[in-house]
């Protein structure tokens, strides 16, 4: 292994994608998890060293990768920044625009880098779609439609909006971010959320739709689903311009799956053979940036913009009214 050390914080589902990516890059990894799950994570992936506290992790690390529940991100990022560490943080960066801005300001003051793990920007089918739009392959982009549907996460904190931001902030933020990456800044957000009821009164499923109006004139429709029973994970997109249409449906060509179990290892896993894992591609970009290389395709400003869009959608759901976005981002 090399002499570069990453401190991985958290040992839940997404850590099972991040740890093997760091190990594949040949870096040393130290792992801390407050729930005591770090030893099992390290054993499962055959690499890494467990430490007993966040302070010990910071002292041993050149950079920090935060894979903990969303409500813990703000404090962990600020502490890592004050310790002079470059940071990868799982999405969303925080639960509010204000907290996210505070995290970014702390990193700027400390002169450290902060990158949000918006991994959908690294999935090959999404990259191909984005590149085609950027290259003018479908002409002027007019309409985008995104769907992301799967089983509701098993961990209880996901179902508490004050801890996770719920379906919109946690799951749909991927497509909100991607819609903005394709079509540019957003002027207005309108959203609805619809829990239907089964005969026994239990909600099934929870669905939300967010409509984004972009400064460019493009309109984006983003739909998310959290089912209360295990279902096949699905992503779908349709993007249309005045010269063509691009479509993808994972059920016809499945790139990822969600196993819907309560196992800590469960999560989004590739089911087709990519040239490499999109998690590895993502982590490599962040690592190279930490070493002085190019800026990754997603940065802290993108993370802030995505949180702002999700927060606006949640406000629209609460008020049943459209939300006008600030135009000076």
Could you explain how this protein is built, in words?
The structure is a single chain. The chain has 329 residues and is α/β, with parallel strands linked by helices. The chain has 2 domains: 5-117, Rossmann fold (3-Layer(aba) Sandwich), CATH 3.40.50.720; 120-271 and 298-324, Dihydrodipicolinate Reductase, domain 2 (2-Layer Sandwich). Helices cover 34% and strands 28% of the residues. It has 11 helices and 15 strands. It has helices spanning 15-24, 38-45, 54-60, 73-82, 97-110, 124-134, 161-164, 166-170, 173-183, 278-290, 300-319; strands spanning 5-9, 28-32, 49-50, 63-66, 86-90, 114-117, 141-151, 186-197, 203-214, 219-227, 234-241, 244-249, 256-258, 268-270, 323-324. A 7-stranded mixed sheet has the order 12-11-7-10-9-8-15, with helices on one face. A hairpin with a 5-residue loop joins strand 8 and strand 9 (203-214). Helix 1 (15-24) packs across helix 10 (278-290) and helix 9 (173-183) packs across helix 11 (300-319). The longest helix is centred in the last third of the chain and has 20 residues, at 300-319. The relative contact order is 0.16.
């Amino acid at each position: 292994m090399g002499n570069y050390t990453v401190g991985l914080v958290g040992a839940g589902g997404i850590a099972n994608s991040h740890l093997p990516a760091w190990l594949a890059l040949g870096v040393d990894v130290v792992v801390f998890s407050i729930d005591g799950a770090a030893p099992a994570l390290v054993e499962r992936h055959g690499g890494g060293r467990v430490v007993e506290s966040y302070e010990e992790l910071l002292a041993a690390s050149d950079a920090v990768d935060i894979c903990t529940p969303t409500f813990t991100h703000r404090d962990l990022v600020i502490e890592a920044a004050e310790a002079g560490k470059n940071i990868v943080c799982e999405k969303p960066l925080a639960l509010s625009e204000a907290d996210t801005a505070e995290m970014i300001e702390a990193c700027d003051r400390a002169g450290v880098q902060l990158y949000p793990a918006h991994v959908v920007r690294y999935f090959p089918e999404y990259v191909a779609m984005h590149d085609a739009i950027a290259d003018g392959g479908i002409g002027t982009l007019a309409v985008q439609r995104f769907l992301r549907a799967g089983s509701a996460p098993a961990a209880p904190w996901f179902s508490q909006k004050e801890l996770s931001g719920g379906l919109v902030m946690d799951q749909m933020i991927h497509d909100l971010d991607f819609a903005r990456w394709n079509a540019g800044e957003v002027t207005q957000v309108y959203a609805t959320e619809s829990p239907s009821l089964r005969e026994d009164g239990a909600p099934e499923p929870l669905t939300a739709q967010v409509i984004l109006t972009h400064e460019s004139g493009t309109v984006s429709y983003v739909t998310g689903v959290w089912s209360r029973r295990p279902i096949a994970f699905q992503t779908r997109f349709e993007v249309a311009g005045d010269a063509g249409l691009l479509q993808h449906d994972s059920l016809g060509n499945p790139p990822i799956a969600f196993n819907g179990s309560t196992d800590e290892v469960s999560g989004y896993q590739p089911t087709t053979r990519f040239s490499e894992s999109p998690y590895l591609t993502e982590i490599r970009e962040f690592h190279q940036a930490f070493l002085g290389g190019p800026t990754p395709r997603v940065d802290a400003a993108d993370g802030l913009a995505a949180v702002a869009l999700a927060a606006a959608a949640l406000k629209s759901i609460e008020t049943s009214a459209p939300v006008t976005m600030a135009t000076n981002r």
